[in-house]
Design goal:
With 459 residues, this protein is an alpha/beta fold. The protein is 27% helix and 24% strand. The chain has 12 helices and 25 strands. The strands form 7 sheets. The chain has a 4-stranded mixed β-sheet with strand order 2-15-17-16, covered by helices on one side. The longest helix has 13 residues.
């Protein structure tokens, strides 16, 4: 901590890294499993969930809404969830900080209930658009509104006459809107048929949602518009033209969740920072608890690292659980530049941007215009962080271009964004004099990051 009260983390540069670590549980799988378990009549168990800041906010909001959630398993590390209908009564406002996933998932989860509830968050959350989802909920018969009329939180959801049916929304802003509708669908009489207008960003996250729903007994149908196939599950809403629809995701009206136990697999987004350290210092890092066949889009980090010249090896033992795999990454003497379309794995953008600082040649990150709506405006924040270290980044509407330059130490302001803090901490392993402000923000997705980071650098 500096004398002016600002908390900073000073990063020590190292000559090499060599470590064997365990990936934290997946934030994305944990939140989907917890949300679905809350909708599922009966008791479900989440084994090895990630209860970082976002997970705790979602858990506490569900508890406040009447879902029974308790500790279970060895040492109370698991979550026992007694799901079903939410408690009656509007209750107090549910505060979600900057947990965008929780805000979007809960909007649909609580919209199916008969009583209205208010969902709110911090200053950044109140700037993050959610009107596309609210409009879709209204189209399915539910009450959903932006309290201030600006399409952003705080929002009020619940009440109305939820029926389900066909609805369409843009795929350009967030795949979480589609995931939220799909997960709530089994509570709707007509199911849900979601038509996606235009390209769908972060597609693997919808596939991940479908994968977790399948574990709880519900199948998601998908048709591509170009096949000419009709909607799956629900009939189109009266007057719906389907113009501009590129694909459809649907949950039929005859499906319902069943209680289950689910083990949460390791998180590829978090593991990307550990692998990046091996790539740029360079060194060798092994991470256990990862499933190379995961639906998580960020498993694509391995292919990107191979393209940049890294040695990558995977080892999955037969008969082991999804969290039993091991992945090794060894960095080359020099990294190659990369042109990366990260539309399906946008959370890797900070990791790839930091890798690009040490690559030979110009690197391009593209396909991620929705980065502007994350915990920070990540396109602009990445450019600012790169500039603080002496690098050069030119922003574009859908990403940025990074040209290698001699680097120097500097102070990185992550703007409260966990992924910015972790990515630039890795850069500091190579760039002496790097400091990261507000290091505690990593608790949003990776509470143990700094402990694992110290093991990378041998502290």
């Amino acid at each position: 901590m500096h004398g002016d009260g600002i908390v900073v983390r000073e990063i020590d540069a190292v000559r090499t890294v060599r470590a064997r670590l365990t990936a934290p549980p997946s934030k994305s799988v944990t939140q989907r499993a917890l949300l679905i378990a809350s909708l599922c009549p009966g008791r479900s168990r989440l084994v090895r969930p990630l209860l970082g800041e976002d997970g705790l906010l979602l858990r506490d909001a569900l508890l406040a809404s009447g879902t029974g959630i308790g500790a279970g398993g060895k040492g109370g590390a698991d979550l026992e969830v007694a799901g079903g209908e939410a408690a009656r009564g509007a209750g107090m406002a549910l505060m979600l900080g900057n947990a965008g996933t929780a805000m979007r998932f809960l909007a649909a989860r609580l919209a199916v209930e008969p009583d209205p509830r208010l969902l709110d968050g911090g200053p950044r959350m109140r700037q993050r658009p959610i009107e596309d989802l609210l409009g879709a909920l209204r189209g399915l018969g539910m009450e959903a509104e932006s309290v201030r009329g600006n399409g952003c939180p705080p929002i009020r959801v619940g009440g109305g006459r939820p029926r389900g049916g066909a609805v369409s929304l843009s795929g350009a802003r967030s795949s979480q809107f589609i995931s939220a509708l799909l997960m709530a669908a089994p509570r709707l009489e007509q199911g849900v048929d979601v038509g996606v207008e235009g390209p769908l960003v972060s597609r693997p996250y919808v596939e991940l949602t479908a994968s977790v729903m399948r574990r709880f007994g519900v199948e998601v149908g998908r048709t591509a518009a170009e096949t000419g196939a009709g909607p799956v599950g629900a009939a189109p809403a009266p007057g719906a033209s389907g113009a501009g629809i590129t694909e459809r995701f649907a949950v039929g009206s005859n499906q319902s969740y069943r209680p289950t136990d689910i083990e949460i697999e390791g998180d590829w987004s978090s593991a990307s920072y550990l692998f990046a350290a091996a790539a740029i210092v360079p060194g060798r890092v092994e991470v256990e608890g990862l499933d190379p066949s995961s639906c998580q889009g960020d498993a694509g980090i391995l292919q990107l690292l191979r393209r940049m010249g890294c040695l990558v090896q995977t080892n999955v033992s037969a008969g082991r659980s999804p969290s039993g795999g091991r992945v090794m990454v060894e960095g080359p003497e020099r990294l190659s530049a990369v042109d990366a379309d990260l539309g399906g794995m946008p959370d890797l953008a900070p990791t790839v941007a930091v890798l690009a600082l040490f690559a030979d040649g110009v690197s391009r990150i593209r396909g991620v215009p929705h980065l502007k709506f994350k915990e920070s405006d990540r396109i602009e924040a990445l450019a600012a962080g790169i500039s603080a270290l002496g690098g050069e980044a030119v922003t574009a509407e859908d990403g940025l271009t990074i040209r290698p330059r001699p680097l120097h130490g500097g102070a990185i302001d992550p703007r409260g964004d966990h992924r910015m803090a972790m990515a630039f901490a890795v850069a500091g392993l190579r760039v002496p004099g790097t400091t990261v402000l507000d290091p505690a923000c990593v608790a949003k997705s990776y509470p143990g990051f700094w402990d694992d980071f110290d093991r990378l650098s041998g502290q």
